[in-house]
Amino acid sequence: MSVAASFSLAAARQLDAADPLTAFRERFVIDDPDLIYLDGNSLGRLPRATVARLDEVIQREWGQRLVRSWGEGWFEAAGRIGDKIARLVGAAEGEVILADSTSVNLYKLTLAALAARPDRQTILTDDLNFPSDLYILQSAAALTGRRVRVIPAADGIHGPAEAICAAINDDTALVSLSHTVFKSGYVYDMATITAAAHRAGALALWDLSHSAGSVLVDLHGAAADLAVGCTYKYLNGGPGAPAFLYVRGDLQGALDNPISGWIGQRDPFDFALDYAPAAGRQRFLSGTPPILSLAAVEPGVELLLEAGMAEVRARSVRLSEYLLALYDERLASLGFRLNSPRDPARRGSHISLGHEEGLRINLALIRDVNVLPDFRRPDNIRLGIAPLYTTFSELYEAVERLRRVVVERLYERHDAADLRVT
């Protein structure tokens, strides 16, 4: 069935029935079948297996085994799960580890990279980067006497890839970008940007928060130096789940962790007063790993591995192309603007629609018609597609409800000042 012929709920259900990954939806907790959840790019749904896994950790490992569990798998959890995430992002075993938050990991790796390029003064990024990434880069620059140069995007949608490559020079210490842009969903060509950084002798640091679990990432193929990412979006690790960091194997011994802590110490239990870093990725750990939160990450990662990232990405594209076709047919005439790339090769797994009443429309979707997207200023209604549980029929129904909000002017009931978190 062609996309153009699918503008009915019955046709959308046929697409779901024919799609090989639709069955994965049943592996997640769906508490309200009428809720159309399009915010998995902010917080993923709860995998059913996570409930059982946390019960095991709490009841047996903590409740019965107590401190003995540290020697029965807890200390190894960050690396074990890291190796599984590595398979999702094109890294090798021993190169990814779970630790801290995305911001803390970005801070660590930024300072490590700057220390490795002591004679260079510039950190290069763009104005589409996630704001907290910019805050971290600015903080690291202030601490080390460097400067952050922000390259503007001409249209606010597509990353300024050519301008970034042109700006990299022998004063550039680090290029740091979000692989998938948080507002528009634009996806950078990681290999091209990284190669430009390397030609100038700079390092490249990528934020994979909106890529891991939804976009094909090949860190090794791109020769990427460093990366960070969160686990609570498409990896379905739960709210506030620990993040991950990647350091290419041949760089691990050359970089220092600026937040040296006892878990990154070569022998934590000799309690030496002088710090000696552990070998490999372990040196980039700092404090005690949060075992309950770590445990919650693993089932969602295993679901993605079971489905296969090539298949997950293919489904993401099928769903987003279908949503774009619905936009063209049903929404474009109602004052909406497409704030995401058309090219699926340059688009992640969410689509942003702009509207002059975007914020109030977003509130009406949540409060009046049981659709849960999110909103990013100034006008972006982000429709997140989580390939393992978002369906064609959900997207069809979401567009129908979105039309109703605008045509019936339901958004006029809502005050834009009411929005806090979506």
Automatic annotation (TrEMBL):
Reactions that this protein is recorded to catalyse: 3-hydroxy-L-kynurenine + H2O = 3-hydroxyanthranilate + L-alanine + H(+); L-kynurenine + H2O = anthranilate + L-alanine + H(+)
Alphabetical UniProt keywords: Hydrolase, Pyridine nucleotide biosynthesis, Pyridoxal phosphate
GO CC terms of this entry: cytoplasm
Keyword hit for Ligase: no
General function of this protein: Catalyzes the cleavage of L-kynurenine (L-Kyn) and L-3-hydroxykynurenine (L-3OHKyn) into anthranilic acid (AA) and 3-hydroxyanthranilic acid (3-OHAA), respectively.
Subunit and interaction comment: Homodimer.
Protein name as it appears in the record: Kynureninase
Species for this entry: Candidatus Promineifilum breve
Gene: kynU
